[in-house]
């Protein structure tokens, strides 16, 4: 969805460059990543993943994986904690106005 603010920003600064996926396995894990740029920012809610509260960009396929696990019981591979996916990571918003 394009908003009036997006259009105003595009007029002022031009087209924004693509933001690359910020996940370390992007490019090597085709089950969870595509070849495209980041489409969604995710926020970390579990310390084993990264600093709690940190935000990073992910590609559309990884965003879909995170969203699909949101209501599923998931286990942290590092500490073994069991929780719903949304207690580990959540979508924080679109990158450059592009929603996944």
Question: In a nutshell, what does this entry contain?
Answer:
The protein has helices spanning 4-13, 60-68, and strands spanning 38-44, 55-59, 73-75, 82-84, 89-94. The chain has 100 residues and is α+β, with helices and mostly antiparallel strands.
Fraction of residues in H or I helices: 10-25%
SS class: alpha+beta
**Nearest-integer average pLDDT:** 84
Poorly predicted parts: none
What is the chain-wise order of helices and strands? HEEHEEE
Compute the gyration radius: what is it? 15 Å
User: What is the terminal separation in angstroms?
Assistant: 11 Å
Portion of residues in beta strands equals: 15-25%
Largest sheet: 3 strands, antiparallel
Count of individual helical segments: 2
Q: What is the 3D form?
A: elongated
Number of strands: 5
Which strands sit side by side, in order, in the main sheet? 2-1-5
Helix and strand topology:
Elements: H1 4-13, E1 38-44, E2 55-59, H2 60-68, E3 73-75, E4 82-84, E5 89-94
Antiparallel strand pairs: 1-2, 1-5, 3-4
């Amino acid at each position: 969805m394009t908003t009036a603010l997006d259009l105003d920003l595009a007029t002022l600064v031009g087209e924004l460059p693509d933001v690359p996926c910020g996940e370390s396995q992007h490019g090597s894990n085709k089950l969870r990543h595509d070849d495209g740029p980041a489409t969604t920012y995710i926020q970390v809610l579990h310390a084993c993943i990264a600093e709690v509260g940190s935000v990073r960009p992910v590609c559309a396929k990884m965003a879909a994986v995170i969203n699909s696990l949101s209501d599923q019981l998931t286990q942290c591979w590092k500490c073994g904690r069991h929780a719903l996916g949304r207690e580990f990571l959540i979508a924080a918003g679109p990158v450059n106005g592009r929603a996944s």
